[in-house]
Amino acid sequence: MSQQEISVRIFKALGHPIRYKIVKFLYDGPKCVCKLNEDIEFSQANLSQHLKILKEAGILSSEKMGMNIHYRISSEEIKKIIDSVDKFVMSYSDNSK
Asked: For residue 30, is it left (φ>0), alpha (ψ between -120 and 50) or beta?
């Protein structure tokens, strides 16, 4: 897979509102999938599908701890992408008034 294809895969994964919400929820640190299920009000199957897409794009990683699976943002670079988009949105919304 080329670098461009990987970049597109990352942007596609982040481009879905539920997946973006998941990443924002995990921004401050790892959380159990049970906490994600409480915050992201969708079926377990739906949530699992979104988590799978985020993992396949390299955005999230997971770790089994006892009976639970904890998800985390895989890299500080992903946080930088989120920060850059948030900064751009603030600037864009200020300039479009």
From this structure: beta
Domains and CATH numbers, the chain: 3-95 (1.10.10.10)
Give the tens place of pLDDT for each residue, 24-76: 999 999 999 888 888 777 788 899 999 999 999 999 999 999 999 999 999 99
How far is Cα 37 from Cα 19, in angstroms, rounded to an integer? 13
The predicted model scores a pTM of 0.88
94 CB-side CA count, 13 A: 6
User: Token digits for 53?
Assistant: 């897409």
